[in-house]
Specification:
Blueprint: H1 2-23, H2 25-37, H3 43-61, H4 64-78
Helix pairs in contact: 2-3, 2-4, 3-4
Length: about 80
């Protein structure tokens, strides 16, 4: 019985820690976009700056999957591998 309880606690801990780990991808991608467009002034960079702001807003709202999707699409348009 104790073994079952310990296993259940261990599984719950892993699940609880795994979900927030995905949320850390968004800020990394936004930062990568900001760094890539810091000294660029072309149309693609302007679009990427808008996408970075949108991705940050989505991340703040808790929509991490959409935030990551927007950021990765912007990085692809800039020709940067994410």
């Amino acid at each position: 019985m104790i073994r079952l309880a310990l296993t259940a606690v261990a599984c719950l801990t892993v699940l609880l820690l795994a979900a927030p780990a995905d949320a850390f991808q968004c800020p990394k991608l936004v930062k990568q976009l900001q760094d890539a467009t810091a000294t660029r002034f072309d149309a693609a960079a302007a679009d990427a700056k808008v996408a970075a702001a949108q991705a940050q807003t989505l991340h703040t709202a808790g929509n991490h999957a959409e935030s990551e999707k927007v950021a990765k699409a912007a990085l692809d348009k800039l020709g940067i591998k994410s």
